[in-house]
Amino acid sequence: MRQYCTMKRIITFSLKYSPRYYGIFSNNYLTNFVNIGNSINNRLNHFFVQYFNTSRTDDINSNLLVTSPRDTIINNKYILDPEDYDSGIYNLKQTLKIQIMSLPYLSEEIAHSYLNLAMAEHQNILLLDNAKEHYMASYNIFCKIKGAQSLEALNALTNFAVVLRDLGNINDSVIVLEKVLATKKATNVNPKLLLDTLNNLGVIMHETKNYEKALRYYKEALQLIGDSNNFICEFVALLYFNIGCAYRESGSISEAFEYMKISKDICNKLDNTLELKNRIQLELNNLGQTIL
Fold first, then answer.
1. More confident residue, 75 or 54
2. How many Å apart are CA 122 and CA 113, to the nearest integer?
3. Which of 21, 8, 52, 9 is nearest to 233 (CA)?
4. Residue 248: which residues within 8 A CB-CB, separation 6 or more?
5. Residue 77: which residues within 8 A CB-CB, separation 6 or more?
6. What CATH architecture is 11-291?
7. pLDDT at 237
8. Exposed, middle or buried, 87 (CB in 10 Å: 0-12/13-18/19+)?
9. Which residue of 66, 111, 154, 234 has the fewest CB atoms within a 10 Å radius of its CB?
10. CA-to-CA distance for 121 and 117, rounded, in angstroms?
């Protein structure tokens, strides 16, 4: 039986702070995917994120306590439905095969195709090793044609780090993400492009119960965001939620309640956030009982 990673709704937001929501993901050099084989338009005007979760509930009446975060941001383009998965993987492999036969190996087209295949494989936990191999192939090509400090290379490397985490290689995942973060800072990229890396590092520290480091990464991301009233999107709500969870799990209940409340207030200003609001409400209910 094929097993799929549980995926949450995709979020996109503009660098101009204008939230936009799509049914599928595009990363910051790819536009919306409609059908496999559509042309790729290279654009850098938006920062896009997607996050996975392996422990969530939509029922606010559930007695289960959400032990988030299990949410990791990755730059994912292909969201294949289970019934289309085999044909989707086949088409991506065929596209790559044709390109390798007809194009110079060190080309953007082949680098993108390796990346697209890896992102599709990343949906299936039985293909995580394949995804790891193809992320690295994409990264190596981008390094040679764009440079190791290019956003394209760093995006592929970020996804590589995430799949390492999914394979249980936590230490190497952290090393790679810290390398990505240091490179982004050294090249003075737009600060908003640090958010995914900081949250990913925070999530890993959180999952390994290193709450102090997790909070440090989360709060550094918050500092980059600045006034949350001017930067409203579900990612920001998730960030406050993750901080609340870290405080709660480290025993700081009042701080946890404060950040959960802010997260809920942000969600109330947005559409299509029922799932996250339910998770927040469940936490608030449990925190309220603890405070009482």
1. 75
2. 14
3. 21
4. 256, 283, 287
5. 24, 25, 26, 27, 30, 33, 115, 116, 119
6. Alpha Horseshoe (1.25)
7. 86
8. exposed
9. 66
10. 6
Hey, which bits of the chain come out as E strands?
11-14, 19-20, 46-52, 72-74
Residue 51 backbone phi and psi in degrees, to 5: -135, 145
Pairing of strands 19-20, 72-74: unpaired
Report the range of poorest mean pLDDT among 18-22, 73-77, 179-183, 261-265.
18-22
Model confidence pLDDT, tens digit, residues 30-74: 222 222 223 222 222 222 333 343 333 333 333 333 333 445 555
Contacts 24+ apart (CB under 8 A), 129-137: 129/167, 131/163, 132/160, 132/163, 132/164, 132/167, 135/159, 135/160, 135/163, 136/160
56-to-60, 81, 82 alpha-carbon distances in Å: 11, 20, 20
49 touches 20 (CB < 8 A)? no
Does this model's pTM top 0.90? My answer is: no
Q: Rounded to an integer, what distance in angstroms lies between the CA atom of residue 128 and that of residue 134?
A: 10
CB 272 within 8 A of CB 21: yes
Q: Which of 245, 225, 248 is nearest to 235 (CA)?
A: 225
User: Which amino acid is it at 230?
Assistant: N
For 10, the token pair is 């995709």
What is the Cα–Cα distance from 70 to 210, expressed in whole angstroms? 14
